[in-house]
Design brief:
Structural class: alpha/beta
Shape: globular
Number of strands: 7
Oligomer: single chain
Distance between the termini: 43 Å
Number of helices: 10
Strand order of the largest sheet: 3-2-1-4-5-7-6
Helix content: 25-40%
Radius of gyration: 19 Å
């Protein structure tokens, strides 16, 4: 991405993500698809226990697309974002997580050990910019990472999908994360592809030896492609057995039942629930 087109160079996040920009996350199908793919990969890198609901923090949750992926996996979540317009869209979309309007550069104000993991999609690089005179990127990054470290349970992970502008920016982010107590490193998917290349900062909070995950599209990953759930369709289908397919009648019914248990208003069931509409009347 050329520096002149980078969103963080155009305006602070609370201004850039205005009402018009926020609406793109409900109307632009391509944007939604990309966000869901990145979120799915980030959740995979979290390596949460299977068939065990976890409590996850979604940093820079925006319109709740990544949170929906967490919900589909059976997890509970809390989303934090600096843009009120993006959170309004998340409310309109009836996301099931709790939403908080906050600046992550001011720290994560949660009790120690609250979360079983944290994810962040396309948000971390915003902290490398000084949008106000009193902003110091190194200090804001350290404040963020140190408070995040405290809010995570020991042995958990935090996974950040990010778009660093250059190697110096990436080094700054990594340095402050390690200074705050994290271990881990960078996972790069498809490093030899210009379009498909994606970076994930995978951080560990201790609690035993943890091995850095293998990036997709590398020589080792290519040789083992049939063992990677994210890249192999048959493996994903095998793991999904026992769970209703997304958007199916059973999936919709399960979601409605979950929302009823939460005390939320849900439309009455009918014979049309989950029925696919015809393309033409």
């Amino acid at each position: 991405m050329a520096s002149g087109r980078r969103p963080e160079h155009q305006a602070p996040p609370e201004i850039f993500y205005n009402e018009d920009e926020a609406q793109k996350y409900t109307s632009n199908s391509r944007m939604i698809e990309i966000q869901q793919q990145l979120s799915t990969r980030a959740i995979e890198l979290l390596a949460l226990p299977k068939d065990l609901p976890c409590f996850v923090l979604d940093i820079g949750c925006g319109s709740g697309l990544s949170g929906e992926c967490l919900t589909d996996e059976g997890h509970m979540w809390v989303g934090v974002d600096i843009s009120s317009h993006m959170l309004d869209v998340a409310i309109e979309r009836e996301c099931e997580g709790d939403l908080i309007l906050a600046d992550m550069g001011e720290g994560m104000a949660f009790r120690p050990g609250t979360f079983d993991g944290a994810i962040s999609i396309s948000a971390l690089q915003w902290l490398c910019n000084a949008d106000k005179k009193y902003h110091s990127p190194p200090k804001r990054l350290y404040k963020f990472f140190s408070t995040l470290y405290a809010s995570l349970s020991r042995g958990s992970r935090a996974v950040f999908q990010l778009y660093p502008e250059n190697s110096a920016q990436l080094e700054l982010i990594t340095k402050q994360a390690m200074k705050a107590g994290f271990t881990g490193g960078l996972v790069v998917d498809f490093p030899n592809s210009t379009k498909a290349k994606k970076m994930f900062l995978c951080l560990f909070t201790g609690g035993g030896t943890q091995q850095l995950p293998q990036g997709l599209g590398t020589e080792v990953a290519t040789a083992q492609q049939h063992h990677v759930a994210y890249s192999d369709t048959r493996e994903r289908i095998r793991q999904a057995r026992g769970k209703p397919l997304k958007k199916s009648r059973d999936w919709i019914q399960e979601k409605k039942d979950r929302r009823r248990r939460q005390g939320r208003e849900v439309r009455v069931d009918s014979r049309y629930t989950g029925r696919k509409r015809k393309s033409k009347f």
